[in-house]
């Protein structure tokens, strides 16, 4: 049976759709997770932890590369230094999780819920991200080449773009990233690297870009009212700045 904790979190997030069956698994312990990983590895496969309740667990340092964590509940979990490269985190619930120093490169985070999570120094290079990331702390995180742009092909899906409202992104590297239609209202982007990033139609009201490197970035049609743009670097080659 689905745990009440997991069902409640998924319902609150509004991520149930008719094509997604209910979760069937109870919560796991760290030892059980490691056992499943070892078993899958022995069979030459990545572990399947989809729809599992892993909330609040200490999973720090674990190798989840390529794992299926679809709709998994990781709310409040300790994921410091985990390896999630290439993992499927679509529809995962990760509110207030600690992913400091985690490797999420090439991971898929579609319709993810990461509100209040910590991603300090995490690597999200080339990841696909659409979902709720309000008030995350991703100071110094790496988003190079990541796709955080809105998905125009799934207008009926919730959410269809990334929401980084009031996120702490100081010193984060978004070079070459796609942030079209991203919500960055009051985000802290001080000294962030935005070289070559696409921010078309992004909502950036009140965002703090002081000292950010915006060389060759495209802000065309972005909402920048009340944004702080002091001492930005590379403004001469950026498009769409006031």
Characterise this structure.
The chain has 242 residues and is largely without helices or strands. It has helices at 4-13, 30-42; strands at 108-113, 128-132. Strands 1-2 form a two-stranded parallel sheet. The N and C termini lie far apart (55 Å). The model is unreliable at 5-24 (pLDDT under 50).
Task: Outline the fold blueprint.
Layout lengths: L3 H10 L16 H13 L65 E6 L14 E5 L110
Parallel strand pairs: 1-2
The count of strands amounts to: 2
- Strands of the widest sheet, in order across it, are 1-2
Compute the CA-based radius of gyration. Answer: 18 Å
Main β sheet profile: 2 strands, parallel
Note the gap between the termini. 55 Å
Poorly predicted residue ranges:
5-24
State the helical fraction: under 10%
* Element-by-element helix/strand order: HHEE
Structural class, by secondary structure, is little secondary structure
Quickly count the helices.
2
Estimate the mean pLDDT confidence. Answer: 90
Quote the beta fraction: under 5%
Shape: elongated
